[in-house]
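Contributing new records

If you add data, match the layout below exactly. Sequence lines come first and carry their own label; structure lines follow with theirs. Keep one chain per record. Anything else will be rejected by the validation script.
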Amino acid sequence: MIKVDLHTHSIASKDGGISLAQYKKILNNNILDVIAITDHNRIDFALKAERLLGKKKIVVGEEILTTSGEIIGLFLKTAIQPGLSIEKTIDIIKHQGGLVYVPHPLEKLRKGIDRDVINKLSDKIDILEIHNGRDMLQKNTKIVRN
């Protein structure tokens, strides 16, 4: 079994707080085997962590604000400009050989993608988050699963 977290925010994001030392400790203590660092609209911290902690341990990601809400690109090589359409953002992620991940779908407070957009683009979405630690009531988990 491989333990992975595909949606974390470092100290480089306003709503994050994980330092490089903390990522290293998590990996060294076998709490997780692989961690995606998905800061908001930037990948500089993730690239540094990948360089220092290893490509097999760190996935470079970015949580990108699109005109339809937030989407995550995983395995990125360059940052993606926020504010583009979700279709254009997905094209750029795919062009980099990345995976498209929809975080906190349907949530309005955290700029989640709505059901119509998810359904329209379902053939281009690789991962759909169904549990998020910050959704205390997990009301969207039941909705997304249906």
